[in-house]
Specification:
Blueprint lengths: L12 E7 L8 E9 L3 E4 L4 E7 L4 E4 L3 H4 L5 E4 L2 E5 L2 E5 L1
Antiparallel strand pairs: 1-2, 1-8, 2-3, 3-4, 4-5, 6-7, 7-8
Length: about 90
């Protein structure tokens, strides 16, 4: 039996993504991503893509589109936040 807390699937809707270079600097806006039902998403640049969510590992896999093109990760931390890189997070708007 695992002691890990269960993480809900990410909420559908718009997420704003930011990166931090260091704790004392303001965050850098990377863009927005809109998660849609059925495994599709649209990024800031308007380019659509596909994603899948794995509940067992709490991860989003970017199958196509802007998020995949930029080699972003998708570690879900809560149903309104996922990490796309060690210093970059997307939060639900």
């Amino acid at each position: 039996m695992s002691n890990a807390a269960s993480v809900e699937a990410p909420k559908m809707g718009k997420y704003r993504c930011f990166a931090w270079e260091r704790a004392t600097a303001p965050p850098i806006f990377l863009g927005s991503v809109v998660l849609e039902t059925g495994g599709s998403y649209t990024a800031t640049n308007g380019k659509p893509g596909r994603y899948s969510y794995d509940a067992a590992s709490s991860t989003i896999t970017w199958e196509s589109g802007w998020m995949k093109d930029n080699n972003f990760q998708g570690k879900v931390e809560s149903n309104v936040k996922f990490r796309i890189a060690p210093t970059s997070i997307c939060s639900h708007q």
